[in-house]
Description:
Blueprint: E1 14-15, H1 19-29, H2 36-46, E2 51-52, H3 53-62, H4 71-74, E3 80-81, H5 92-113, H6 130-159, H7 163-206
Antiparallel strand pairs: 1-2, 1-3
Amino acid sequence: MNNKTLPPSSPGLTVSPTEPIRSFLLSASKEPHLSHELRDLASTLISQNHIHYRSLRSIWIASDPSTRPELIRLFSGSQFIFNSPKPREKSEELKARLKKLQELAERNAYQELVKDITPKKDENEPFSSYKDQLGFGLHVALTMFTGYLVGYAAFRALFGHNPAMSAAGGILGLVCGMLVETLLFIIRTSNQDPKSSTSTSTLKKNQ
């Protein structure tokens, strides 16, 4: 068994010194029956505020049974002292994850706070999504292609098998199709503008 003095922060059972314990250690430091190391250990433990049970018990076992106090009397009135474990250090990965979660919680709290004063996005706004943009593009391309075929067929019927006039008719039909699509887009957009202006004015009145 190691009889050297243990530091107060080392693991193991620790007791608070009482007058019987100090008196026993003082007599043990002068007892010739004990080894030199145990006498030095007893002298050192006298001045300590926390005494490890292992060190005190090693001195008590080596002491003369006829002169040493009973173990129950020795620890009578003494209190056990428990050393709190060191707090676990958070890893860098955990710190970064906690920071992201905190930022997300703050962002959600801010959005919840300003949801009544922030105007909502108009879901019917044209080209508000990639699907709308793709659908509009395909619709325009189909309309222009149809206009080209109609113009090409009409000019071919009027001017016979003249490739130049047939091509010119196709180009004219393509332009007409593009103009029709543009006109429909303007009409559709103008019908949505009054709704957005009405919602904006209502929001300003509420503020």
